[in-house]
Amino acid sequence: MERTPTKHRPPQISLILRALCGAYLIYLAWDLRGAAAGALRGEENFLFLPAAVVFLVVGALLCFFSIRALIRGEYRLPYESDDDDEGDEPPAGAS
């Protein structure tokens, strides 16, 4: 598998934290389902339904893209720095 330059890749821990945050948003949407059902019946505030939908969509997208990047290896390992690829090029003033 060919790795992309490290400048444009997030750290591995960042992707893991994004996936966990996405899972938490999905959990919150699942927890709001009772309030959203009450909003449809007119018993609760109507804003619970759009909030649950937004949490579900954003959480699913965060999980999907973070897990996909982890599977594809599109991340920077902890021991890689941002300027690892710049060492291959000679400095601008060198001849």
Task: Please give a structural write-up.
The chain has 95 residues and is mainly alpha-helical. The protein has a domain at 18-76. Helix content is 57%, strand content 0%. The protein has 3 helices and no strands. Helix 1 runs antiparallel to helix 3 (48-72) and helix 2 (33-41) packs antiparallel against helix 3. The mean pLDDT is 81.
What order do the SSEs take from the amino end to the carboxyl end, as H and E?
HHH
Inertia-based shape? rod-shaped
Question: With helices defined by DSSP (H or I, 4 residues minimum), what is the helix count?
Answer: 3
Major sheet description: none
Number of strands: 0
Strand content: under 5%
Note poorly predicted spans: none
Which class of secondary structure composition applies to the elements? mainly alpha
Fraction in helix: 55-70%
Question: How would you concisely characterize the structure shown here?
Answer:
With 95 residues, this protein is mainly alpha-helical.
Spell out the blueprint of helices and strands:
Blueprint: H1 12-31, H2 33-41, H3 48-72
State the main characteristics.
single chain; 95 residues; mainly alpha; 3 helices; 57% helix
